[in-house]
Prior knowledge:
Strand content: 5-15%
Bound molecules: phosphoric acid mono(formamide)ester
Strand order of the largest sheet: 7-6-5-8-9
Oligomer: single chain
Order of helices and strands: HHEHEHEHEHEHEEHEHHEHHH
Amino acid sequence: MPIEIKNSSSQPLQIDSGGRLLHFLAIEGLDRQRLLQLLDSAAQFISSDTNVRKSQGSLLAGHTVVNLFFEDSTRTRTTFEIAGKRLGASVINLNTSRLSTRKGETVLDTVRTLEAMDADIFVVRDNSSGTAHLIARHVPPHVHIINAGDGRHAHPTQAMLDMFTIRAHKGDISKLRFAIVGDILHSRVARSQIAALQILGAKEIRVVAPATLLPTEIERLGVTALTDIDKGLEGVDVIMMLRLQLERMEGQLIPSSQEYFRCYGLNQDRLNRAAPDAVVMHPGPMNRGLEIASDVADSDRSLVLSQVTNGIAVRMAVLYLVNGGNADEMNA
Ligand code: CP
């Protein structure tokens, strides 16, 4: 199934009648002010030496965050755990291979069971599109759901930590040209990045991939689709590489790993086509020598580890805001 092109709105589920962020499920349906508020709130969790502040221990004291990851994760799960702990929450990481879902219990019954133990924020990753939305539709108002990646649909906290990192390193997003390069077809990250960049008014968004990895109607999202990476990178300020998601591919969509790297891998020569001060991003995990050359990934133009660090602050802000935190008080 290709990336969903239709612009779905998650607003009725995400925002309550008083305008507060109740769940964080997708970028779509949020407005510019909400995204800026989230970025500004995350900035409050960064200390002056740019390390994420070690503790804001009272903001989520007495609350329980459950990391419910039915798919593998290193960055997202761990940074949510650190974020929750720095806000003073109890954080529970469930080993989903040991859960009673394997005995036939539904994910909704699993969530209700954990709610009965006073869990009140669930961070959910699943390989099916829509799982976090489904749970959000069935929980009481005091329970909050954060989408940590659902199938090919959305990865909104990744997009926001990317926006945070771009703003920190390159300034005003509306003045910048972007190239998102790689496996667009299977990428929930690309979909959320495109939505966030559009809401924040990016000057230009290009998506670059072989034709087999480009959704046919992607340009309806307001981006320019290119199959020639050299043209795609010409003059851009930010290159956002994507992982080749071999585990989600049905059939042979690339000739071979070597051929893919030769035609679409980001190497130093290709990086030279971008603006002289262009930066390189990758959500991770990276496949070195497949979508990105090691010398580029490790160069001073690479923001990959900055993205990881900023993920803690952005996830602290998301946890704080969905739990009823007041962005205006924080940003005052
Ligand atoms: N970017 C990202 O979602 O990484 P993880 O799969 O390690 O969480």
